[in-house]
Every structure is written in structure tokens, then in C-alpha cells.
Amino acid sequence: MGARLAPAQSHGWRIYADFLLSAGHSRIAVAVESSVYWASGTRILRDYLAPRGGTVTELDMRALVPTAVCDELLDNRATALLLLVGNPEPAVSIVKSVRRDRRLAEIMIGAPAGQPEFAEWARLLGDDSAAIPFLRYLPERLGSLGARVETALRERLGEAPSFVAFEGYDTVAVLADVLRSHGADRARTAESWPRVAVEGTRGQIRFSRTPGISVWQWAWTPIHVVDRDPAEPDRFRILHTS
């Protein structure tokens, strides 16, 4: 039996759906590519929003070019467009098309999977990279270990590390602790998960059994909905807290 650090998709994406409603968005369009992950995300959003009066309209990016998305948004009277597509393409092209269409000046673009987290996003989109909310698995303030790791990663990478880098560090820290304590025996490792207690970059990591999840789960890493600040795209603003 394995263990997982990353929060379940259902947990994070329900938080994002709650953010959409709290921001006044109930008519949601999703630009979606064909994949199990994107299909699951669409289903989570629809199941959460529908009982609360929300609608989710799928825009199949296998059949649409980015410029055609704009007309679809108008036809469906959507107030928010979510990018459930690959990065950088077609995500970047969709953002550029929507931002340049004056008819859609009031529409919110979102990216729950976190594409705007990465420095490449800001380099490719410039000012258009801002004000696109996404899920970020970091606490509001890092503790002492997180701050030290951030400094070391920044020096090595030459840029601010993403939350994925912290997740990677925490994964290695947990595996190292388990191997030190129990060796490489798979059965002993499987039995050890409920006793693991490791200081991670984002808090104390412990595993538990969570309903509906078949593996041991860290429940939960801190989750925020954030965006890049339009006034300073290299800075992230917290918009919603789980």
C-alpha cells in the first residue's frame, strides 16, 4: 500500500469551485483537451457547481482553434473560462485570444491545475499572465525549513521555485525517513505509513486513511487559490483559502 503527498484532485478542485462561486461566477466554460485528468476535473467542477446553481460548458479543443473560443464564450454567456489544457500550448494561445477580444473584457480566465505558477508562463504572456487564478499548494508563509529550501532552490534554479519543487523536496524527505527507519523491504514500508512524521517544507507530514482514497494520504497540504498580481506579475496574491 502506497502513500501520497499531493492532495486528491477532488479536494483541491472543489476548493477552486467554491472560489468561483464566492467570486460570483456560476456560468463556467472549460476549454478542455482529451485526457483522464481533465475529464475528472470537469466532472468534479460540474458535480460541485450544479447543486449550487452553476453550469459547466465544455469547449472541446480538439475541434476549436483558440480564436474560436471567444465566440463560444459569448454564445454561452460564460463569465469565467477555465483552461483544462496543456502548457504552454494551447493554453498561451487561448489566453492571448481572449485577452485581445474587447467583447470579453469582463471574463475571468482561470487555470486550476496551476499553469500560471511557472516562470515560463510569465515570460510567454507578459502582462497577460496576471489575474489568472490557480491552485497553489503552499502555506501563506513558509516555516524555517521551507525558507532555507526556498533560498537554496532559488540559487540553484536562478528563479523562484514553484510549489512543485517544494513537493519534490518533501517527497524525497519522506522517502529518506522511511528508508532510514525501515530499509528497502516493501512490506515494512507499507506498514510504516501511519507512523511517519516528517518535517516538510510546507508543514508536518503525517499520513492517514481518508474516505474514498485507496492509499495513505497527507490530509492536507496547505491549499490556496492565487494569481499573479497585475501590478507586479512576479508577485502572487492569495485570493481564497481552503
Give an overview in words.
By secondary structure, the chain is α/β, with parallel strands linked by helices. It is 40% helix and 20% strand. The protein contains eight helices and eleven strands. The strands form four sheets. It has a four-stranded parallel beta sheet with strand order 3-2-4-5, sandwiched between helices. A three-stranded antiparallel beta sheet has the order 6-10-11, covered by helices on one side. A two-stranded parallel sheet has the order 1-9. α4 (91-100) links the parallel β4 (80-84) and β5 (108-110). The longest helix is centred in the last third of the chain and has 20 residues, at 163-182. The protein is globular.
From the alpha carbons, calculate the radius of gyration and give it in angstroms.
Answer: 19 Å
**Approximate shape:** globular
Record the strand order, biggest sheet.
3-2-4-5
Strand content: 15-25%
State the major sheet. 4 strands, parallel
Number of helices: 8
- Which class best fits the helix and strand makeup? alpha/beta
N- and C-termini, Cα separation: 28 Å
H/E order of the elements? EHEHEHEHEHEHHHEEEEE
Low-confidence stretches: none
